[in-house]
Design brief:
Radius of gyration: 19 Å
Bound molecules: adenosine monophosphate, magnesium ion
Shape: globular
Number of strands: 17
Helix content: 25-40%
CATH architecture of the largest domain: Roll
Structural class: alpha+beta
Strand content: 25-35%
Distance between the termini: 30 Å
Order of helices and strands: HEEHHEHHHEEHEEEEEEEEHHEEEE
Strand order of the largest sheet: 1-2-6-7-10-13-14-15-17
Number of helices: 9
CATH topology of the largest domain: T-fold
Length: 340
């Protein structure tokens, strides 16, 4: 058990913002701030400096293209040309947008990459988040409209049809980056690694003793770094969307960062968090956000219609429901698993 806890300890340290120049007796790890979060990679078989360099430079490249906070990103170029003209983009940006559009359709718009105007209005990840007025929300809601995102594969161009529309890839870009990292590991013949992009985890390969990795599921009511249970995975990713990640409180109400495109407010679905487990991290990232917005019944239907996907739903009353074959072991007795 001690050994198993070791990885969790590393992940906790990583989340707390410490650069892991190698946990004592542990694997060499490296952490850098990128993609708006702390990215920690632990190469368990060998810590080759050139592999770390390649990984982190790819993270920075993805950020430089897909971030909305960097003014010169490709995403902001698309946003600046909303209602004016299509913009040609790099193939990775196009690929992520195609995937985002697919999840928008699959989730009936619960996941919507054109959520940008509402994200800016609430500014929940910024320095001064605030509760907007109903008028402000109503004015922007019509601009959140994934059907008005035009993707032309041949010319690799992207067009937001109406002025004022804006893309935000905060709900999928980290997952994509984790998959890109896995590709770099494969190319470099790395056998086992943990990629942790702000809690978005990709467990690559298996542990040296051939057992699965043990990934902690964050306690959504506690500070970061405490876990309510464990998922055992090999070559899988576990991605969580939850109320605890980014939020502000006003008059005793918590306003978190996952917005419902239906009404423009933080999604209120009775859930504290949803963790999705599957092979590809971009899928898990998009799905966890979509399912959080959809809520349990519709979210479960989406998970069960997707092949090889499992989910752990944690509700406000501390009950937990599992679906789609999630291999989850509860360790916190304050929570309880209930059957579907
Ligand atoms: P995640 O933590 O992956 O669930 O992503 C949340 C982030 O995605 C937010 O900080 C926003 O940048 C963006 N976002 C918020 N609501 C949505 C939504 N309904 N669909 C797509 N992206 C969203
Ligand atoms: Mg997501």
């Amino acid at each position: 058990m001690l050994k198993h806890c070791f990885f969790l300890f590393c992940a906790v340290l990583g989340l707390a913002g410490t650069t892991l120049a190698g946990c004592r007796k542990g694997p060499p790890s490296q952490a850098e701030f990128a993609l708006g979060t702390l990215c920690t990679v632990s190469l368990y078989d060998q810590g080759k400096p050139e592999v770390y360099r390649e990984l982190f430079s790819r993270f920075r490249e993805i950020e430089s293209r897909m971030s909305v906070t960097l003014p010169d990103s490709e995403l902001n170029r698309i946003n600046a040309h909303a209602g004016i003209e299509p913009v040609q983009v790099q193939s990775d940006v196009f690929e992520v947008l195609e995937l985002a559009a697919r999840y928008a359709e699959l989730s009936d718009g619960a996941f919507d990459p054109t959520i940008g105007p509402l994200v800016s209005l609430w500014n929940i990840s910024g320095d001064e988040p605030r509760l907007p007025s109903q008028e402000e929300i109503d004015a922007l809601l019509p601009l959140v409209s994934w059907r008005d995102l035009e993707l032309d594969r041949e010319g690799r161009t992207v067009f937001l049809k109406r002025p004022g529309m804006a893309l935000d890839l905060g709900a999928i870009a980290k997952g994509y980056a984790a998959d890109e990292a896995a590709g770099i590991l494969r190319k470099n013949r790395i056998k086992r690694a943990i990629i942790d992009l702000g809690g978005n985890i990709l467990a690559y390969g298996e542990k040296q003793d051939r057992r699965p990795w043990r990934i902690g599921i964050q306690n959504p009511l506690d500070s970061r770094g405490s876990y309510i249970g464990i998922m055992e995975v090999r070559d899988h990713t576990v991605v969580t969307s939850g109320v605890y990640e980014r939020f502000f409180e006003e008059d005793g109400v918590r306003y978190h960062h996952i917005l419902s495109p239906a009404d423009g407010y933080p999604a209120r679905s009775g859930l504290l968090s949803v963790s999705v487990v599957t092979r590809r991290s971009a899928d898990a990232d998009a799905l966890s956000t979509a399912v959080f917005v959809l809520g349990y019944e519709r979210g479960k239907a989406l998970v069960e219609s997707s092949e090889g996907v499992g989910a752990v739903f944690i509700f406000e009353d501390k009950s937990i429901r599992l679906c789609g074959g999630a291999d989850f072991v509860l360790t916190d007795e304050n929570y309880r698993i209930v059957s579907n």
